[in-house]
Specification:
Layout (H helix, E strand, L loop, with lengths): L5 H7 L7 E5 L5 H10 L2 E6 L2 H9 L4 E3 L14 E7 L8 H11 E9 L4 H8 L24 H11 L2 E8 L7 H5 L1 H4 L2 E7 L5
Parallel strand pairs: 1-2, 1-4, 2-3, 4-5
Antiparallel strand pairs: 5-7, 6-7
């Protein structure tokens, strides 16, 4: 039995059975393995870490060792039903270009990221320190995050690029939705999940 992170379990609710999926920064391949076993999906994972690539191979997941920052030029437009990237957007050199490529290669893109607009982050910055929270646990000097954004920042980018938001889930650190997250998503949500589509796909 594969135990998924709560955010990955929520993503599974968005995936149609029998789909073709590309998982960027797929880690140990647990999402693809789960979807293959329970939703009969086919597809590939992209992962740069050789140890995680080895774990994917052990799990029977099709994986390509590659750097997402180098783009998806080896994949034709519309090659996949879904392209998924979880908790990696903020670690990329050009997140906007990565999303554009996701929406070129996939009919639908699914991205998740930690919300830098959460009140704990704002409180830390107000006291003159870089934030360390449950969803941003690293110190400033050893964090992989280089382009942190807020829910409002992300939605502004989607609006500017005319990317259609098909669905979103805004969660607290226990991966629950609630009234506070609905009323003040940029202030109270800690983890954001978005399902997107390119404008020409409408």
């Amino acid at each position: 039995m594969i135990n998924l992170r709560p955010d990955l379990a929520l993503i599974c609710d968005w995936i149609r059975p029998g789909s073709r999926i590309l998982d960027l920064g797929c880690g140990d391949g647990s999402l693809l393995a789960y979807l293959a076993a329970n939703h009969q999906v086919t597809g590939y994972g992209l992962e740069i870490d050789p140890d995680k690539v080895a774990r994917c191979v052990e799990a029977g997941v099709n994986v390509i060792q590659a750097d997402v920052d180098e783009g998806l030029r080896d994949f034709d437009s519309g090659s996949f039903d879904y392209v998924v990237m979880t908790q990696a957007l903020q670690a990329l050199q050009r997140p906007d270009e990565a999303i554009a490529e996701i929406l070129r290669v996939g009919r639908v893109g699914i991205v998740t990221f930690p919300n830098f607009g959460h009140w704990r982050v704002r409180l830390a910055l107000a006291t003159g320190r870089m934030p360390v929270t449950p969803t941003l646990p690293d110190q400033w000097y050893d964090s992989p995050n280089i382009h942190l954004c807020t829910v409002d920042d992300f939605e502004s980018l989607c609006s500017e690029r005319h990317w259609r938001v098909l669905a979103r889930r805004l969660l607290d650190r226990s991966h629950r939705e609630g009234l506070r997250n609905r009323m003040g998503p940029n202030l109270f949500s800690e983890v954001a999940l978005y399902m997107l589509q390119a404008p020409e796909a409408h």
